[in-house]
Amino acid sequence: MRIIDKNNDFYDYLQNVYRDDSVTFDRTDSFVLTKEEICDYMPCCDELIGNKWCFCLLQVCNRFWLFLIEVTKSIKEYDTPTDYTAELLDTWNDYSKQRVLCNLGLIRFDWWEIGRYFRRGKGFANYDYDKTKFHEKSSILVDAINTKNFEVYRSINCHTIFLDGWRADEEHRKIEKHIPLLKASGFAGCIDPLDIYLSFEEYFSLEKTASERIESVGLTDKEKIENHGFDTKISFRGKQRGG
């Protein structure tokens, strides 16, 4: 796969390892996603699980990555996150879902329903969650995603650049980018570069296959019949009356 982009990401080197110019990824619509920007998308700490955890979901083609985000630094006066660590909880393929080029978002589950699986102790009123159980019981979260029992409350697929640093309402004064580059996001170290590279390549391969036509456009009925291997004079001759 050949990548066209003035920016680069952590998996780009693989285009020189697995060179295939038959597939092109025009990634000029990209932007570098930073940890600071992700913190801006996150809710206040008192809205996080255990006041410090939340989840992030990445989809490329039909492959998914589920991350656990743990806030490590915040502005106490405003209770807003300023830094975090990211860990991979699980990754899987689901071809029953609609394929997409790239979707990234902060998600939340019905914690009233599944929160009991991740508590440190027992009891209805125990809200002391155990981080190790996020890994041990990640299949519960994956099942919730596969059955659409979750919601995306912050989509991180659009980045607005204001020209000349001037924020204005005129549409021609701003540019929107839609493909996040993850090298500065804290997620790159959790993702196998080959996995995401092959997922992008698979997306374009499947899109190319889906766009290919079985028949040429503008053919007459006679030409369509001949293209399918039939002879219009013999194969479709009417029944002859007995002599």
Characterise the protein shown here.
This protein has helices at residues 14-17, 35-41, 111-114, 131-136, 138-146, 193-211, 221-227, and strands at 2-4, 24-26, 30-32, 53-61, 63-75, 80-93, 100-109, 150-155, 159-162, 174-177, 179-181. By secondary structure, the chain is an alpha+beta fold. The chain has one domain. The strands form 4 sheets. It has a 5-stranded antiparallel β-sheet. The mean pLDDT is 86.
Topology:
Layout: E1 2-4, H1 14-17, E2 24-26, E3 30-32, H2 35-41, E4 53-61, E5 63-75, E6 80-93, E7 100-109, H3 111-114, H4 131-136, H5 138-146, E8 150-155, E9 159-162, E10 174-177, E11 179-181, H6 193-211, H7 221-227
Parallel strand pairs: 1-2, 3-11
Antiparallel strand pairs: 4-5, 4-7, 5-6, 7-8, 9-10
Quick tags:
243 residues, alpha+beta, 5-stranded antiparallel sheet, 23% helix
Quick structural summary:
This protein is α+β, with helices and mostly antiparallel strands. 23% of the residues lie in helices and 30% in strands.
Number of helices: 7
Enumerate the spans where pLDDT stays under 50 for 5 or more consecutive residues.
none
The SSE string, one letter per element, is: EHEEHEEEEHHHEEEEHH
**Which bin fits the share of residues in helices?**
10-25%
Main beta sheet strand tally, sense and closure: 5 strands, antiparallel
* Beta-strand share of residues: 25-35%
Rg from alpha-carbon coordinates:
25 Å
Which overall shape is indicated by the principal axes computed on the Cα atoms?
Answer: globular
Q: Assign the structural class, choosing from mainly alpha, mainly beta, alpha/beta, alpha+beta, or little secondary structure.
A: alpha+beta
Q: What's the number of structural domains? A: 1
Strand order of the largest sheet: 6-5-4-7-8
How far apart the termini lie comes to: 67 Å
Number of strands: 11
Mean pLDDT: 86
